[in-house]
Amino acid sequence: MEGLTLSDAEQKYYSDLFSYCDIESTKKVASNGRVVELFRAAQLPNEVVLQIMELCGATRLGYFGRSQFYIALKLVAVAQSGLPLRVESINTVKDLPLPRFGASKNEQESRHTTSYSSDAENQGSYSGVIPPPPGRVQVKKGSVSHDTVQSRSSTEQQESISPVVSPQQSPPTSPHTWRKHNRHPSGGNNERPLAGPGPFWSPFTEAQTGSSAGDTMWSGHSPPPPQENWVSFADTPPTSTLLAMHPASVQDQTTVRTVASATTANEIRRQSSSYDDPWKITDEQRQYYVNQFKTIQPDLNGFIPGSAAKEFFTKSKLPILELSHIWELSDFDKDGALTLDEFCAAFHLVVARKNGYDLPEKLPESLMPKLIDLEDSADVGDQSGEVGYSGSPAEAPPSKSPSMPSLNQTWPELNQSSEDTAIVHPVPIRMTPSKIHMQEMELKRTGSDHTNPTSPLLVKPPDLSEENKINSSVKFVSGNTVDGYSSSDSFTSDPEQIGNTVTRQRSHSGTSPDNTAPPPPPPRPHQSHSRSSSLDMNRTFTVTTGQQQAGVVAHPPAVPPRPQPSQAPGPHVHRPVDAEGLITHTSTSPQQIPEQPNFADFSQFEVFAASSVNEEHDDEAEKHPEVLQVEKSSEPSASLRVAKTDGRVEEKTAASAPANAGKGTTPLAPPPKPIRRRLKSEDELRPEVDEHSQKTGVLAAVLASQPSIPRSVGKDKKAIQASIRRNKETNTVLARLNSELQQQLKDVLEERISLEVQLEQLRPFSHL
Amino acid sequence: MAVCIAVIAKENYPLYIRSIPAEHELKFHYTVHTSLDVVDEKVSAMGKALVDQRELYLGLLYPTEDYKVYGYVTNSKVKFVMVVDSSNTALRDNEIRSMFRKLHNSYTDVMCNPFYNPGDRIHSRAFDNMVTSMMVQVC
């Protein structure tokens, strides 16, 4: 720098200022608090200040030496005079008024001016140059202006509201002072304790000694503990600081911040920022974070796995404990991976921590995944409060609902699950009949014409078809076997009801995918109702089982052989096509269903579909027993699928037996294929309920045709083989049903767990 | 209310142990240590059936005149031992279960933290807070 010639007044003024800034008395002033405050108080634009700093060489050196400081002051004067900043202007401009450092408070101004005036007659030009100590009206220590200054800065920090600031806070203030400076740009800058010269300085320097520690902070790194006072205010400063620091600190994330560049940058940013939320992330910060995220995970919607994040954040050289805490705060959904938002929050916290700000106990709202970069920091105060309350036993916001650890599911967090894509509310999805089916059941129940159900039937979802197919197959089988058994009408009603209730149960208990609420109560009564009826069914079934089995035994010889061997391929061919939703059913249902349909007149089905359920009762007795049996078996199978009623399994097995028997009893050769196809389609479309009626027709047709089917000699062998095959198929069906039931059980358990979770959340935890 | 909560690792060393009245800390440490035998006994007695949360909860391990000890073991053989004061009106079993569930969930969260090495002592603040909330009640 060129030689600087200062007038006497300037010399004195500058030296005073330098002494003021040079709290460490090291003859060089780091770019910290005082200097910054000073320059800010100069009320110069940030760019100008930057320029000044550059010109004076402070940026080069990283600190203000005495000469640099003087040059800077001179440049400030030059700038304030409106002259362009030039290195040469230092000496060329003559008669430059002393640099003025804005004063905000009158009292301070007056104080200073008076002090100044009293101090230096030859400094008459000061005219209240030196800004009075931070005049936040903190007249408390009115006696000592410096105290006021310091307390001001401290108070300033304190949300700039509470006037009273304990002096002890002042020391740590200074470092924060300038940091937080931007927080209150309106009045802050001026208040910077640009203490007056001379007499005030010594007290300042004394008072500032404490803050020297804080100043040193600037040179580098971890925040001194005193900052904890500021933790609460840290809200205000951090933003600005963070904003400013961020680019610098981020760049040398692994290194200590450079002082000068950081400070200047910080200053500028701070001055320009007016964030109320200290934890808010600026756009540039966010952009930086996003870029860093991309380096790890190119997909912005994807996750960063925990291990990668660990490596990344370990580079920041923060202690593992702190990193662990940061992780806890930022991993919102506790899934061990970071989304973009979570990553930004974590990064922001790391930056904050590196810059010396204590980590909050709770994740600040602005860093919460859904709130990042939101401007609605309405409750800034709250936030700052939150951040500062280290003592508060804050539960992590994303409190993982107590799901079974074994279930790898994250239950919906209170109200924050919405934004987090990782959290998926486990909504049980029914594989089994859905509402449509239920509607159909209801319709059938009410006895309304089946035209209504028909339409939903036509639209029947594949999953319904599964069940229906099973049911139908079972029904048919059992119906066939029951051939000859005159079952009472109670059977009819029971199976229907059971089936209805069962399906309803299924659909309800499974909870439609749309609503996450527990199944509505209404179905329950039906369940109970069905149960009672099912009990009957159980009894009847046990009875019929024996009968059926007897029938099975008896039938083969009596009933014309099922053209299974010939038909099997056919049905199988058809069935697989049918099974939209059916998977495992294909093996069984093809055999079973086609069996019955073989002799079923599908045209009848359509008719029956249209007809009401009552037709079942009106049908021939033969049909009834068959249908009923079929229904019974189907009901149990359906119910099995839904309700975790082990008892039904027996029924099912019983049904399967009759089913097998029924197969044997349904001998159909001729009609099979075309009819089967039709039946298939119908089966797929129809819900169980309607199948009942339809089956009735089919069975009726079957029965009608049965007598006409001759019984071959080799029928026995064939029958046995057929029955074996049927048994196998039934086994498969049962296995399938079992798996479905297990699935449903699991779903219901999940529901239960979610309900329990909700209950726990609602219930206060104090139980003692 | 719980007076002592401990998290024991699979190898039976403590990952986290905390007691409320400081003066009895040693006593509770000893209690927890001795309860590990009971835990092992119960675990071995239990069949290796499909893991069900009921099996995770071991129930009352043993009562003394002053307090009762409850146990809970996870699928990875991490044990939670809770000592409750008998003077408190008997805690319902469900409450104990819910407390263990909360413990388990918090422990899971700690595990999810990539910076936590399994086998380390648990220093998580969130976990501490949760445990504090469980212990700081009544008594």
From TrEMBL, chain B:
Q: Which Gene3D superfamilies match?
A: 3.30.450.70
The GO annotation for biological process reads:
endoplasmic reticulum to Golgi vesicle-mediated transport
A GO CC annotation given for this chain: cytosol
Can you say where in the cell this protein is located?
A: Cytoplasm, Perinuclear region; Endoplasmic reticulum; Golgi apparatus
Q: In terms of domain of life, where is this protein from?
A: Eukaryota
Q: Which UniProt keywords apply?
A: Cytoplasm, Endoplasmic reticulum, ER-Golgi transport, Golgi apparatus, Transport
| InterPro entries per the UniProt record, alphabetical | Longin-like_dom_sf, Sedlin, TRAPPC2L
> Which family does the record claim for this protein?
Belongs to the TRAPP small subunits family. Sedlin subfamily.
Name it. Trafficking protein particle complex subunit 2-like protein
| Native organism taxonomy | Eukaryota, Metazoa, Chordata, Craniata, Vertebrata
**Which gene carries the instructions for this protein?**
TRAPPC2L
